[in-house]
## 1
Amino acid sequence: MQEPPSTDYNNAAQLCDLAETNGWPLWKVALARESHLQRCDEEQLLKRMAGHYRIMRQAVRDGLQIKVLSVSRLSGGDAHRLFEYSSSVGPLFGPRFSKLAAYGFAVLEHNAQFGRIVATPTAGSSGILPACLIDLEENEGLDENGAAKALFTAAAIGIVIGKNANFSGALGGCQAEVGSASCMAAAAVAEARGGTPKQACSAGAFALMNTLGMVCDPIGGYVEVPCVSRNGMFAVHSMLAAMMALAGVRCVVPLDDVVLAMRDIGRRMPRALKETSEGGLALTPTAKELPPAGLFPQDAA
Amino acid sequence: MSDFSAFEIIGPPMTGPSSSHTAGAVRIGLATRALLGEQPTRAKIELHGSFAATGAGHATDRALVAGLLNWLPDDSRIKDSLLFAEEKNLRIVFQCADFGEDVHPNSARLTVVSVDEKTFCTVTAASTGGGGIQILVIDGFAARVDGCLFALVMWHKDKPGFLSKITTILASAAINIATIRTTRKGRDGDALTLVETDESVHADCQSLLGHLPETKKLREIPKLVY
């Protein structure tokens, strides 16, 4: 049996080449690659991804219902507040805008209360893709199969980031988590809205470029402040990046260069601002009033 | 090095709150349990870097224990794992530790003891982000296992021809070897061989490998990342 031509790639330029040579969207490249990697047919993989999407949708729904505070008392009830605001009279920028943010909040509030989510790419950034895709489902007629394809677009871009940088807040700060998620979501939305592979990559580049330098300094070490609001806000940011790419805004720095910049900044970022809660928001007077989360009971004694 | 499956990027489905500090920690616990070969009766868990600094807020302690109890990252009971551990007679001590600047900031060292108190295993592993892990050290031997494949782990005497015996047995069972690495403590000393395979090595084949005169102990780490 003849080996099919390789669908693996090491960077966004190669990914775009593969897409253009075959006349495929990005999701199709990622799907073909996965099919080869897992020795599994594409139809089954799309079904499995649709299953992940259903977990995301459930996380949004459950998160919107939360009305109690988390164990740390740092989050809880704000997704619900934003959602209620969206149905008030004349919400700022219309109902769709505040709902989008509410969905990002919802997943992270659910996550903080030990709920089931899909790490996309991490738990701390797990609200962005669900928020964007549920918005498209509600407003643009994206069905489950379409959402599964969009998640493969996101994976196509995520593979570029994984191979050339990383997704770890401890290694790269929040830019590696929320930045990566935003990058992936922007590309997924751009492609779902009919953008070309290059436009999808530009959307990703705009999203990631404008998260560079973002540190990981969660209060008390909990994935809540600023993570919950950040997921809501960067769902909006991702949509804006997709909009810019679809409008043909010129992307001066290609995605591959932005990813390298992200890695470089991550390496230079001080350890205190990389998920250790030893700097930034975690050291503010407000944070200091909270009980320490880092010490185990026997150490505190 | 991971192949980066799309389902690693979009996944895993997991119980919150943190992919590195919760889901990755569960997988480290699962790998450690597999290396011991049973649920331990005692465990010392040392936490380094960000695991020590913010682990409690992320339920890293409970997630590592959940793995030792053989639970998966999306198990809804993770937050209560310490209670289950007590019920199942698993005694745990937690310590903060410093493994040095060069060790990944999300790392833990687990020392586990079997029920008959005869078998010990010490595993150092890092949670590399997004739920991915890297096992760094097994019983003092440098290791590199990321759980993306099945991994056969053999503790043995360093003797000429041992590797060819392994590959012959695996070949006869039609098992494809992805990687194979041996590290040893000096010539003719103790050695550890790690064989990553695409499929799980079935029991008959494991028994053949386990009965080789050089083999002291054999375990298989299941595929942890899908």
## 2
Amino acid sequence: MNPVLLIKLTENDKRILIAACLVIILVFVLIGFIGSIIVRVMKWQGKKCDTLISDVVINRIVTTPHQLRKYARVKNIRQFIKHAYIPIILMILSVVTIIIHNAITKNWAYNPFNHEDGFGTLLFVWDFKDPDSYANIFGITLLAKWPPLINEPHFVVEALGAYIAIPLAIVGVCWYLVAAQAYLARTIRAWKLSKQVFEKSLDGFNQNTPVENGQITPQQPEQK
Amino acid sequence: MVSLLKTFGKGILYVIGLPFFLVTLVLFGVFGLFAFIFQLFKSIIYFFTGQKFFPDLPEDKQLKLLKEGPQAEKQEDMPMEREVTPREEEKPLIYPYVQEPPREEPVPEEQILSRMTNEETVEEACFGKPEEEPATEEVEESNNRFEKSIEETPVEEESYDSQEEYQEEIVQDEEEEESNAEEDVLETSNDESEEEQEEDLEVYVPKSSNYNDDIFDDDDDTDDDNGVDIRFDV
């Protein structure tokens, strides 16, 4: 007999299992919602591609899918550069700030995230390395209690460089990722359009339809 | 409930696809960064060649040709040039350092003649021609009287009783003329003597005086190598 089938669950175990399942379902639903939002945002961002290439397509200057993709690629890169230059400047500023800080303090091994004279001084820091916070349950080491707080937010003058550099870097990176996402969305849209715009359909076409004077005569509806 | 389950299913798919999505995103980001740097160098070259940051693609040029005609293409090819309105095109170009003389059109002869005869003065050009005031009655009367008086005044003619008197008078006149000539000669000789005197005066000979020595003498100064003593003794 399979030992899994022999496991007898208590009422408490059943409750825990149901709660765990619900939590997992909720987490996936949440991920699904977030994913749907991202997809919608990307579709909205991709619409910009239509604006960039519509004139050329409508006026039939671009006549093949390959031409369209090529034109759209150049236009997309240009649009991306327009979007991305500000976040790139922010990131460069962040790096320059850290370099200046290190040059002044003459400490090139400086970690700007540390909680002594870095950006960590502004955050709550818990000591997850504390062995007393963990417990061994059925051979698995699990967090048994909330770890001790080792840092509360406080201002340190020496960390001024990190206070400027880290927010600039975070904003710059997020902004840049959004710009990159828009670029990706436009590329996908251009790929779709290159297939869709030049699509040929034979729906409703019948080669046996009589042709008179080079024009197809409309078919008469069958009388019942 | 069905939609919730659909979302749950999507959630599972998104979790599976998330790493791929993130990798693609990062790749696009890195590619974009390289494209940005490449474009930066390219734009420096464009800047020094006077072109746009993003020059028009061949498709864009074709589109402009379609929309605006061939003139738009020509204007676009000229770098760093502002748009010229048709009115401005008609105007002659003004070069700040090259000043051409104004073109003179040939003036017809009739106009030249009219200018010569009826040329206006500066005052007339500025303030207009002065209107001739009608002469008053008093002025007219005075003019008439003046003319009459001129007409009425008799011309006094010298009359001589005899030929001898006439000759005597002629002789007297000649004597007077001679005396006048002599006086002129005397006057000229006097003038010459005065000029000579003036020339003599121009040569300045300074007279010796006792004060000259006093002026250039520095009796009060003493050469004691301490500079000049400029104290004033009161």
